[in-house]
Amino acid sequence: MIRLILVDDHPVVRHGLRGMLEAEPDLAVVGEASSGPEGVAVAAELRPDIVLMDLRMPGGDGVEATARILATVPGVRVLVLTTYETDRDILRAIEAGAGGYLLKDASPAELADAVRAAARGETVLSPSVASTLVRQVRSPAPPALSARETEVLRLVGQGLTNADIGRALFITEATVKTHLLRAFTKLDVADRTAAVTRAMGLGLI
């Protein structure tokens, strides 16, 4: 028998999941929680095989709860079950140690099969999530700006001129230009506006 706990802030969702899972002869829902911290406490008390974890809940982030559960409950596997499939959500969950990432539009059969696969130690990803991870792996890493280049671009983004930036950082205007030109090269852009836009898009400033 595979023992599960459900962590989701919506009682209706937990009720529906319990009904779907307990219709399977080899699955048993042994506990529920409505927040990340409560999920950590319930997992520590009941020591389940699988935790089905929502990501975004009032009073506690599912990613943080996942990391804490995996650090404190030996042998447990956490499956994220959420409506969110943004790149950031997926990567944070996987980096925290989640053994799978499923969307709430999964069918009852898909969910039950995913739980069994996770219990066997397999990684379970919905097709769209798997595609996102492949795209992330194939994408080139963002350019590495130096601390000073980042600082200069941040000030450019605030509307400061090269002379203003020089005074703010106690460097010459020529040095500001040098930092900007290096940043342009790394970001593969030709002007200040494009540099700031690209750096912001990459999360560098």
UniProtKB/TrEMBL annotation:
GO terms for biological process: phosphorelay signal transduction system; regulation of DNA-templated transcription. GO terms for molecular function: DNA binding. CDD domains: LuxR_C_like, REC_NarL-like. Keywords: DNA-binding, Phosphoprotein, Transcription, Transcription regulation. Pfam families: GerE (PF00196), Response_reg (PF00072). Residues 138-203 form the HTH luxR-type domain. The keyword DNA-binding applies. The modification 4-aspartylphosphate is found at D54. Coiled coil: none annotated. Transmembrane segments: none annotated. Residues 3-119 form the Response regulatory domain. This is Transcriptional regulatory protein degU. It comes from Actinoplanes friuliensis DSM 7358. The lineage of its organism: Bacteria, Bacillati, Actinomycetota, Actinomycetes, Micromonosporales.
